[in-house]
User: What shape does this take?
Amino acid sequence: MTVLIDPPGWAAHGRLWSHLVSDTSLEELHDFAAGLGIPARGFEGDHYDLPQERYAAAVAAGAHEVDRRTLLRALQRSGLRTQKRRHEKVIASVRDAPWLPPGGRADVVSSRQDDPPAPTVVVRLAVVSGARLLLVERPGRGLDLPFREVDGGSVAEAVNGLVQGVLGSRDGHPRLVGYVRNRVEHPTPDYRWPTPRACFALYAVDVDPVVAQCLSGQWLTHDKAAPVLAERHWWPLLRDGLP
Assistant: This one.
């Protein structure tokens, strides 16, 4: 493994920052960062942001000093480079995700955009009432969020249809929470989604207790839902609390 670091040069929050990356493995990058005491919140999907006062310690621990262009090229060659839009953050990245063909990667992206990127193939809905989340039984899969495939129409049509199917009307105001982006370069015959990218969007809608009583499904508080849903690829978008 080679961990690379560029000189402090990105200004934010009144200080300068470096970028810390691996050209081999996110797991080893996480281990290196943990050894330096870098908090997990510094991870940005394919790199850690490192304040200038920690630069010397990272180099002393074995990080190789390179210029920013060299660092970016190494990250792109590694296959670990993630893409994000304004007001988005990659909060988890699973390389060789077990639910994808070999070599596939799943990026979990929180978003404050109005719409997910193309191609979005599935939309899910987190129906929230206070501290509770509505779950439905998915045959053979256990409890899940209500979902709908986009299936050739627009994402907006799929979201409106999902809201109407769950709430019985279109009166809800769903907002995008984020999405899971599959990256698959070498699909297997049974992989049915677009390649090399396909997105699975998560929306949220709030309902009052009166409406909640009329909805079909099972209501769980966040602490009860966590152990049930922890293995779902979208769970990191809800892991720190209901939206």
Notes: The chain has two domains: 3-78, 88-237. The chain has six helices and 14 strands. The domain at 88-237 is CATH 3.90.79 (Nucleoside Triphosphate Pyrophosphohydrolase).
